[in-house]
Amino acid sequence: MDAEAVIEIRGLTNRFGTTVVHEDLSLDVMRGEVLGVVGASGSGKSVLLRSIVGLQTPSAGQITMLGTDVLGASAADRAAASARTGVMFQDGALFSALTVRENVEAPMRERLAVDAPTRAALADLRISMVGLPPEAGDLYPAELSGGMRKRAGLARALSLDPEILFLDEPTAGLDPIGASAFDALLNSLGEALGLTVFLVTHDLDTLQATCDRIAVLAQRRVLVTGTMAEMREVDDPWVQSYFHGPRAHAALGQEAV
Amino acid sequence: MADAVPSSGLALTGPVTLDTLDQVRALLDRAESTTRVDLSSVTALDTAGAWALLDHRGMHIEAASPAQDLLLRTVEAALPPARTARPRKARHRAGDALAAVGTTVEGFLTTSAQGLGFTGLVMARLTTTLVRPRRLRLTALVHHMQEVGLNAVPIVALMGFLIGVVLAFQGAAQLRQFGAEVFVVDLIAVSILRELGILLTAIIVAGRSASAFTAAIGSMKMREEIDAMRVLGLDPIELLVLPRLLALVILLPVLGLVADLAGLFGGGLMAWIELGISPSQFQTQLLANVGATQALVGLSKAPVFAVIIALVGCHQGFLVKGDAESLGMRTSRAVVIAIFLVIVVDALFSVFFAFWGV
């Protein structure tokens, strides 16, 4: 992993009415790493993700993604930067009126002049890469199970070969086998495609299995970043209980104390 | 971006990505004689590029960097099994139009049958509730009464007023030819009280409330709230349909009355300005020639229209499926069906009242 930061967040503040979600938050995401973002419910993980991808305009601060100042850039520059990212929302957020294949084709259709058979073939490739059976391409999102919807959402996020992949709770609601398979999929795709992954999750198994680095969101800022092992040494009550709870021990394959 | 070196195979340079896909494929197609492709000067390779290289069967890929090699192997492993011809969309055939008619008729019959079933279900629940009035959700009822009734007063009143104005204006022009200006009062009163007041009110309420019912219940259905109610032992008909139904049945006659009064006011005003019929003359003529029966005949239709609008709106809401499109389709269908049925039933009422001699 080289030390180039693909996302730089400086002094980010997000305020909703009188509620302050982030205050002077700073975070770097390095090229090629899988960064796991954890935090208690309501600590602003999703708001952070939405701020970076431009769905939420922060009250203050600066966000640079792939060399583009996300907040100050023109619409065209921002669109060019977001063409190099992929987002997978919590429940896939697939377009319900389109089939899975059409969903995966949608970003290509919007941005590039690729002919229809190539587009369909590339969509089929993405569908197969995320581990969906070929016949899933003709199904509508309502006909898919939760795990398949997540995979389809990932296929759509990968549609433009993004450099940065944002994942919001990718394994939430999956059975343990499905979740492990998703972790493995993420690892192999991340390595093969050279992806930088910004992963919001609650799942300790996923953190352990996929993340190079973990950022803990608490007290309206990034409390600490580091590897899983480093997390266990952090002297903070919330981090302690998170990474030393019975679930953490199970995830790390250790006996609970 | 690339040049062919026939002796040593095809040497690609620059990016081999989605953006350069057609150029890369053109090069691969042209280099039929070679079976080797050299990636040593390729600056960027993505899945689309890798797919294009692999799609060209029999091409031997050389000098790929370790990262490119990994990508190629991942894509190769994921290549969909033997490209089967995807079933094309069926061509149009001669019988299609006929089949479409059949499908439409069948859909119409099915919907009618379902609607009838839904009506029966609601009536059964309504009876239970009437026997045990405590089961009625009073808060919900009052909320919906405000939503469908009170909040609709301005638009209904404005509509009634304008209809009165228009009738007086048009009527005056015709009646003046016969010197029968004063009968404009009868014209306004009979047409508004008997027909237009309540019919147009029902149409406005169908547009306003039937759509709102469908959208509300439909989005609850999409978010599995209806299922949640069922497993909690709560009856969605009792909780969602009855308050809306009763609110409309109680308040549509009131809205009709508002429209009637506003129509008489508008018509009276116009008759005064246009024909010089003073308010007291208007009143005398109204009381002498148009009895309360006319108003009662008109308002007696209101509860029936209310039942139609509420049942159609709620039923279409329950028919919403998982996708956003069906919500929109059901909402527009609710309005169309409700207005259509209101007009049909109004025509039946006319026949009935004519037969009865009212």
From TrEMBL, chain A:
Q: Which PROSITE patterns match?
A: ABC_TRANSPORTER_1 (PS00211), ABC_TRANSPORTER_2 (PS50893)
Keywords, sorted A to Z:
ATP-binding, Nucleotide-binding, Transport
Query: Which parts of the chain span the membrane according to its record?
Result: none
Looking up Pfam families in the UniProt record yields: ABC_tran
Domain (ABC transporter) spans: 7-244
Report a single Gene Ontology molecular function. Answer: ATP binding
**Protein's UniProt name:** ATP-binding cassette domain-containing protein
Instruction: Write down the species.
Output: Rhodovulum strictum
